Automatic annotation (TrEMBL):
Source species, domain of life: Bacteria
UniProt key word Lyase: yes
Protein name as it appears in the record: Dihydrodipicolinate synthase family protein
Family: Belongs to the DapA family.
Taxonomic source organism: Saccharopolyspora oryzae
């Protein structure tokens, strides 16, 4: 595993969270998953994101997930917890917890559910930034109903509140406007199915879903897509095409169930989701199983 200059660079796996049959958190299984991801070349992990079903966790569970990840992480493997909350004060408490536990950075949504205006968004990040831990903003207007536009991201960066952005809109054109308005703001790939496009646009990181199941193939694809070498794109394209039937699930409503199912197929523990996430429809599950087996048959791991 290559050490990164900045702890939010490289592939941070938006980790799935393992549950026991009674839907209690399997902390031992999660710790083993952290170590497995590190052993397979990932640069870090992002617990308590949507893929980790943080919305269904108690405060005690959510805190323990972070400490479990940090305790399991080997040297040089970075932990970037999600710190999403309804308001700035609660978000800051989660940033403080992450800092005290030894996290290297945090991933932070704008105000969650409340459709805040520009001033409220800036204040939200200002309050969290007071803790002093590097903050990667998370732009997901589909869930938050707030769009962190390139101009707003540039303002947050100029104020010193954020160091990067996880771009989840799927609009790859934004990468260029962000670079124009905030040249030093780090762009992180936010959806698996635009990895190649944002890699070409200069992304320096990927907060990724499918490495939970396919870390080696994901790492090869990421390194080719972000190398800056035009010859590597020719190598990346067939891999991207082969993996894309799975990668596109990352931007669908059922992405948690889909990625956990692929984990089960490859021999990892994905398992059940907590409510309100229900089992996949048979047609969707059959396709994910078939597509996962197909990429395994082609030699991807």
């Amino acid at each position: 595993m290559t050490e990164q200059l900045k702890p939010w660079h490289g592939i941070h796996v938006a980790s799935a969270l393992q549950f026991d049959d009674d839907l209690a958190v399997d902390y031992d299984g999660f710790a083993e998953h952290v170590q497995w991801l590190a052993a397979n070349g990932m640069h870090g992990i992002t617990p308590n994101g949507s893929l980790g079903e943080y919305q269904t966790l108690t405060a005690e569970e959510r805190a323990r997930v972070v400490t479990t990840a940090i305790e399991a992480a080997p040297e040089g493997f970075h932990v970037m917890p999600g710190v999403a909350a309804y308001g700035a004060l609660e978000t800051r408490r989660w940033v403080e917890h992450a800092a005290e536990a030894g996290a290297h950075s945090v991933l932070m949504l704008p105000p969650n559910v409340y459709r805040a205006d520009r001033e409220a968004i800036v204040e939200h990040y200002r309050i969290a930034a007071e803790v002093g831990l590097p903050i990667v903003a998370y732009n997901n207007p589909y869930d938050t109903k707030i769009d962190l536009s390139p101009a707003l991201l540039a303002e947050l960066h100029a104020e010193g509140y954020i160091v990067g952005v996880k771009e989840f809109t799927g609009d790859v054109r934004r990468a260029y406007e962000i670079k124009e308005l905030a040249p030093e703001l780090d762009l992180l790939i936010g959806t698996d199915d635009v990895l190649l496009e944002l890699g070409l646009a200069g992304a320096v990181g990927w907060i990724a879903g499918y490495p939970n199941a396919l870390p080696a193939a994901s790492l090869e694809l990421y390194e080719l897509a972000t190398s800056g070498n035009p010859a590597d794109i020719a190598k990346a394209l067939p891999i991207y095409r082969d993996l894309h039937p799975l990668l596109r699930w990352d931007s669908k409503t059922e992405f948690v169930q889909a990625i956990k199912l692929s984990m089960d197929v490859v021999g990892r523990k994905g398992g059940k989701c907590r409510p309100p996430r229900s089992p996949l429809a048979t047609e969707s599950a059959d396709k994910i199983i078939a597509d996962t087996k197909d990429v395994l048959a082609k030699g991807y791991k």
